Amino acid sequence: MQDERDRLIACIPRLRRYARALIGDRAGTDDLVQDTMERGWRGLSSWQRGSNMRAWLFGIMHNLHIDQVRRPSVATEVLDDDTPLPAARASQSDSLEIRDLESALRTLPDGQSEILLLVALEEMTYDEVAATLGLPLGTVTSRLSRARQKLRAHMEGRSAVSLLKAVK
């Protein structure tokens, strides 16, 4: 039991990073990670020993996030005077690029952005993403390809060209 507890705790930094990329604000990120850890702890007996705990927890987080997106909520913004400033400030162009990237990510459909973040940010394999999200491998690869194409086009300031043809 101690080994499972340690493995569960070791997943927290990656869960936080992914949740932050999905949600964007600190309070929402903390809530999603906490809910994921709570559900993971309660359901630890259903986790199959020897399987990938990280993928299992990401699956739990994915389902919780989908539930939160579907549930209407009131938008709030947390103001915290005690938040420490980073030691080195990014240049103005760096912050503009980050803002543009965040904006571009927000334009992607949820299915595409989730897969892109799991592959690029969390360095999960396509098979791990497919297992985590409960999708066929072909769906993962096609959504990832479309997400990359749209993101690249947005960052270059052009409109994304669809390679799909309408069939009558």
Protein architecture, described:
With 168 residues, this protein is mainly alpha-helical. The chain has two domains: 72 residues, Orthogonal Bundle (Rna Polymerase Sigma Factor, Chain: A); 75 residues, Arc Repressor Mutant, subunit A. Helix content is 65%, strand content 0%. It starts with a helix and ends in a 13-residue tail after the last helix.
What is the chain-wise order of helices and strands? HHHHHHHH
Strands, count: 0
- Runs with pLDDT <50, length 5+? none
Radius of gyration, Cα only, in angstroms? 18 Å
Instruction: Give the distance, in angstroms, between the N- and C-terminal Cα atoms.
Output: 58 Å
**In the CATH scheme, what's the topology name of the largest domain?**
Arc Repressor Mutant, subunit A
Descriptive keywords:
single chain; 168 residues; mainly alpha; Rna Polymerase Sigma Factor, Chain: A; Arc Repressor Mutant, subunit A; 2 domains; 8 helices; globular
Secondary structure layout plus pairing:
Blueprint: H1 2-10, H2 12-23, H3 26-42, H4 53-70, H5 92-107, H6 110-120, H7 126-133, H8 137-155
Helix pairs in contact: 2-3, 3-4, 4-7, 5-8, 6-8, 7-8
Task: Provide a brief overview of the structure.
The protein is mainly α. Helix content is 65%, strand content 0%.
